[in-house]
């Protein structure tokens, strides 16, 4: 049935040689442009990959060797709700907030790995955690591959796709690893369509943005005060239309039932990635500290309890310090939020001061 | 398994390596099995139909060859009836029942069949009819090898959307199994990359523009968006179908077989006859050899010739799908062919033929032919008569030029088509790439082409090949 080996070789030589050389060159060109990191310097600052690059540039700008530093990681809630300078005020400890909007712990892990690879060292890695269940599967967070593409490499070819649950997301993850050009397609097209605009974004606006981030005071708006009775709003008359829509959306999200399987999967996800971060931090004698984020503007009024599965997930992470779950519970009021998720200026100030003090105490061994 | 998916290329790579490892006969059997695996990707039940059709057509070939005189003709008639019957049941039965019911004003519900249209059945039918006719005409001996015949019908690169392979071209290729040369590999790679680029980077961009226009919407009834939509569909169908053919030809060549060309820059045709010599060439040849010629062709006087043209083009149109819109498209082209003949006669009679053929006039003829062909795509793409009518009304309405000025991007549609059609017209670059360029140069161009595919390709939504539905 099988032919002689010399005939097989003769048949396959030409197509395989050509395909092999083309594939090799393709890989080389992609590596040169994308995998080397060269392209990420040109990625749109407001894109997912660009947000990761911004975070790394912020670190580069703020890091001072020899100064005791705490690295702060998280999503937009941490970006809006935590100020490094306020947290470190009056102490020798510096806080650098590298939160990436729309990110989850897996991205924080890869970000931390990249930071460690670049030689930055910290006293601690501080992570903001929302002890409120969410309805979507964190492991299959759709933005993740386009954020992580700037942080992953060929060595992650098996582990990274395997960290996703669904086949569609695994395919996207594999794509981000093997074909970064495909993942960054729309960013590249935008660059080719308007290079001048990209140039301005990168070299005129971004430096200003990066230097402004530590000075950012937070937003002034606040959520409306609502009269609740048994979880229902009694009177909307004092609330404007826009604020009402915002509040109603948030309340509807809170009321939506959450599949217990998703809760359990998210708890496992947190344990896995916080554990990986704690391990990575420990290799450089740093501690992983988890602080609770205020869960929303009406949690106190609604009498909502903390999700125990998330508390257990964080508590089970070896080597991590979990700050008390109720640390910021008093801030779960409309006066400290500008929407259903993010703290406003007052909230930001309070969170930074309280968390900063607790972290300093924890690191000084007083807690 | 679509040509623009990773699954197909993994399948193709595995098939290529497997065939190279096998001796001639096992390789053919493996290729037949691979073709059935490919076809089962749509629906395993289709394989049964394909196998049955193959077995019956194989038998018909032997019967036709062994018969003589009237019996031979009866055998051919049976073979053609079987193939057309298969098509009638699976593709046209419900359409004709609904048409009849609509004519008689009765409810067709009880008479309709709940059947799925097998992918590529029209192409399989054409192959079957062509084989039976060639054997009947003694242009080809009936094939004895069941494997060879099964491969002719099921060979996966052309199974679902052609090109329609002429039995006389294909069977001689099964005798010897040539070693794949460097030139074959380069040619195959070139066609595959070209086809993928046409499909993924060009056709898939034009598809949403055409869809937005033909599916109605906020711009329905406006002239400029209607023209943009029609031109976008003209380009979509060309890049989609010719891209498919390029990939099919490239894959076949890498497996050791050669398919004929199916497109020769049809939108550069200077008249409608020329267009049909360049567009879906394998269908044009099939219609000529197996329909136009048996109907009498141009041997039975001028009137009969024109009637034959109308019949052939009308049936050719209907072959594309079970809808009167396709028949209208075919008849429209039939009328254009007739008008072209008349125009030629007028030019001849007036002595202006030589003047009209001067290069100076060529852009005008090419432009006119392109517009006429594009107008023909309206009934082809529109869902029904009403949609066709409203689109034609929109095309004929006064254009709002401010819209065209605001949406300057729509001018890129005709510009892109012009650039593509003019690009490497004599194929010098393409031939150089296959015959003379060094391996590193070919590889570098291939790598850049793949990178361009990644960047310019439209992968977010899977847009099926247009001709898969036929």
Structure characterization notes:
The complex is a heterodimer of chains A (about 375) and B (about 475). Chain A has helices at about 5-35, 50-60, 75-80, 85-90, 105-115, 145-150, 160, 165-180, 180-185, 185-195, 195-210, 240-255, 260-280, 300, 310-315, 345-365, and strands at about 70-75, 95, 125-130, 230, 230-235, 285-290, 320. By secondary structure, chain A is an alpha/beta fold. Chain A has 2 domains: about 1-35; about 50-140 and about 220-365, SGNH hydrolase (Rossmann fold), CATH 3.40.50.1110. In chain A, the strands form 2 sheets. Chain A has a 5-stranded parallel β-sheet with strand order 2-1-3-6-7, with helices on both faces. A two-stranded antiparallel ribbon of chain A has the order 4-5. In chain A, a hairpin with a 2-residue loop joins β4 and β5. In chain A, α5 runs parallel beside α13 (about 260-280), α10 (about 185-195) packs across α11 and α13 (about 260-280) runs parallel beside α15. Chain A starts with a helix and ends with a helix. Chain B is an all-alpha fold and about 475 residues long. Chain B has 2 domains: about 30-175, no CATH class; about 185-470, no CATH class. Chain B is globular, with a radius of gyration of 23 Å.
């Amino acid at each position: 049935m099988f032919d002689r080996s010399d005939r097989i070789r003769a048949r396959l030589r030409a197509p395989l040689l050509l395909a092999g050389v083309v594939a090799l060159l393709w890989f080389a060109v992609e590596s040169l442009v994308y995998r080397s990191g060269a392209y990420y310097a040109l990625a749109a600052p407001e894109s997912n990959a660009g947000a990761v690059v911004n975070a790394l540039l912020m670190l580069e700008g703020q890091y001072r060797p020899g100064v005791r530093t705490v690295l702060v990681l998280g999503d937009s809630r941490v970006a809006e709700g935590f100020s490094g300078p306020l947290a470190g005020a009056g102490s020798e400890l510096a806080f650098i907030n590298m939160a990436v909007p729309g990110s989850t712990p897996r991205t924080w892990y890869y970000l931390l790995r990249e930071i460690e690879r670049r030689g930055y060292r910290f006293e601690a890695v501080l992570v903001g955690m929302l002890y409120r269940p969410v309805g979507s599967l964190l492991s299959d967070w759709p933005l993740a591959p386009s954020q992580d593409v700037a942080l992953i490499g060929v060595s992650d070819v098996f582990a990274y796709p395997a960290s996703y649950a669904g086949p569609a997301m695994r395919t996207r993850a594999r794509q981000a690893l093997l074909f970064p050009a495909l993942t960054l397609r729309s960013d590249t097209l935008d660059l080719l369509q308007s290079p001048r605009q990209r140039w301005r974004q990168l070299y005129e606006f971004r430096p200003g943005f990066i230097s402004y981030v530590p000075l950012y005071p937070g937003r002034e708006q606040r959520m409306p005060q609502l009269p609740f009775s048994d979880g229902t709003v009694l009177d909307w008359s004092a609330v404007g239309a826009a604020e009402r829509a915002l509040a109603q959306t948030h309340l509807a999200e809170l009321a939506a039932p959450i599949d217990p399987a998703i809760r359990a999967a998210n708890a496992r996800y947190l344990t896995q990635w916080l554990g990986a971060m704690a391990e990575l931090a420990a290799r450089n004698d740093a501690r992983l500290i988890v602080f609770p984020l205020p869960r929303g503007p009406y949690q106190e009024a609604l009498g909502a309890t903390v999700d125990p599965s998330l508390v257990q997930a964080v508590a089970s992470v070896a080597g991590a310090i979990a700050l008390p779950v109720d640390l910021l519970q008093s801030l779960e009021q409309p006066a400290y939020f500008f929407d259903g998720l993010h703290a406003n200026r007052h909230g930001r100030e309070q969170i930074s001061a309280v968390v900063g003090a607790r972290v300093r105490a924890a690191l000084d061994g007083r807690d | 398994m679509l040509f623009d998916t990773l699954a197909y290329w993994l399948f193709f790579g595995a098939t290529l390596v497997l065939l190279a490892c096998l001796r001639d006969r096992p390789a053919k059997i493996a290729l037949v099995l691979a073709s059935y695996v490919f076809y089962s990707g749509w629906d395993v039940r289709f394989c049964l139909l394909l196998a049955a059709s193959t077995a019956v057509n194989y038998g018909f070939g032997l019967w036709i060859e062994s018969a003589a005189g009237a019996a031979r003709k009866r055998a051919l008639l049976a073979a053609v009836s079987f193939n057309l019957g298969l098509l009638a049941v699976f593709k046209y039965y419900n359409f004709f029942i609904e048409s009849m019911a609509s004519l008689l004003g009765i409810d067709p519900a009880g008479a309709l069949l709940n059947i799925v249209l097998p992918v590529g059945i029209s192409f399989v039918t054409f192959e079957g009819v062509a084989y039976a006719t060639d054997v009947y005409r003694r242009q080809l001996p009936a094939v004895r090898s069941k494997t060879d015949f099964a491969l002719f019908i099921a060979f996966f690169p052309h199974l679902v959307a052609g090109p329609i392979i002429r039995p006389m071209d294909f069977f001689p290729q099964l005798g010897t199994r040539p070693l794949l040369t460097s030139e074959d590999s380069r040619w195959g790679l070139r066609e595959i990359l070209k086809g993928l680029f046409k499909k993924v980077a060009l056709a898939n961009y034009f598809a949403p523009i055409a869809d937005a226009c033909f599916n109605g919407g906020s711009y329905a009834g406006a002239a400029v968006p209607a023209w943009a939509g029609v031109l976008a569909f003209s380009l979509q169908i060309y890049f989609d179908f010719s891209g498919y053919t390029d990939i099919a030809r490239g894959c076949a060549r890498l497996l050791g077989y050669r398919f004929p060309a199916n497109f020769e820059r049809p939108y550069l045709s200077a008249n409608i006859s020329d267009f049909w010599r360049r567009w879906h060439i394998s269908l044009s040849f099939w219609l000529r050899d197996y329909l136009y010629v048996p109907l009498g062709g141009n041997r039975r006087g001028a009137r009969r010739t024109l009637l034959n043209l109308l019949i052939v083009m009308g049936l050719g149109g209907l072959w594309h799908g079970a809808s009167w819109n396709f028949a209208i498209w075919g008849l429209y082209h039939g009328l254009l062919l007739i008008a072209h003949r008349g125009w030629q006669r007028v030019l001849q009679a007036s002595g202006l033929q030589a003047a009209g053929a001067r290069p100076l006039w060529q852009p005008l003829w090419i432009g006119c032919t392109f517009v006429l062909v594009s107008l023909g795509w309206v009934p082809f793409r529109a869902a029904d008569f009403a949609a066709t009518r409203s689109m034609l009304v929109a095309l004929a309405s006064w254009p709002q030029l401010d819209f065209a000025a605001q949406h300057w991007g729509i001018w890129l549609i005709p510009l892109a088509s012009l650039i593509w059609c003019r690009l490497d017209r004599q194929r010098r670059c393409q031939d150089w790439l296959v015959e003379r360029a060094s391996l590193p140069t070919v590889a570098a161009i291939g790598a850049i082409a793949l990178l361009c595919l990644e960047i310019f390709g439209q992968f977010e939504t899977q847009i099926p090949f247009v001709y898969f539905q036929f």
